[in-house]
Specification:
Length: 155
């Protein structure tokens, strides 16, 4: 049987486990079915999560050569053996973070070129990885991946 579980305090709900949706809400009694963990923001500071230790993004994938970078994992490792490899990325979810890390570059480069759902800033239209260790951190905002930081070349 599917059973919800709730923990209350003097000020309201602390934890709600929603069995049908397989989700947990902290500080709310209606966790979103789109997430496994849905945490309400603090009314004073706006903060939701304070971690005393490091945060592990344990799910990743590897894009070898040309093709689409996955959007269902937070981290994608990029690997290229030779030549120029064209990359694409699908649409994400507003607020989603995507981290790209070049881990193998035996020759050539990997690049996103003139892709309509990537906003690079400064008039750039190409994001190129051509050395091991190059990175890009993207956030999906208003139907576009925005470049937040990184060492990959923008041109």
């Amino acid at each position: 049987a599917k059973v919800d579980f709730q923990v209350y305090s003097d000020t309201g709900i602390l934890v709600h486990s929603d069995a049908p949706n397989h989700s947990v809400g902290i500080g709310k009694n209606d966790p979103s079915a789109s997430f496994m963990l849905d945490v309400i923001a603090d009314a004073t500071t706006g903060g939701s999560i304070n971690s005393a230790g490091w945060l592990a993004l344990s799910t990743n994938d590897t894009r070898t050569g040309a093709g689409a970078v996955g959007v269902t994992t937070p981290v994608t490792f990029l690997s290229n053996s030779s030549g120029a490899s064209a990359l694409t990325i699908g649409n994400g979810t507003n607020g989603q973070i995507k981290i790209l890390v070049c881990t193998v570059m035996d020759g050539g480069s990997m690049a996103f070129t003139s892709q309509s759902n990537i906003q690079l800033g400064g008039g750039g239209t190409t994001l190129t990885f051509d050395s091991v260790g190059e990175t890009a951190i993207l956030m999906y905002v208003n139907s576009k991946w925005q470049l937040l930081a990184g060492t990959a070349a923008v041109s």
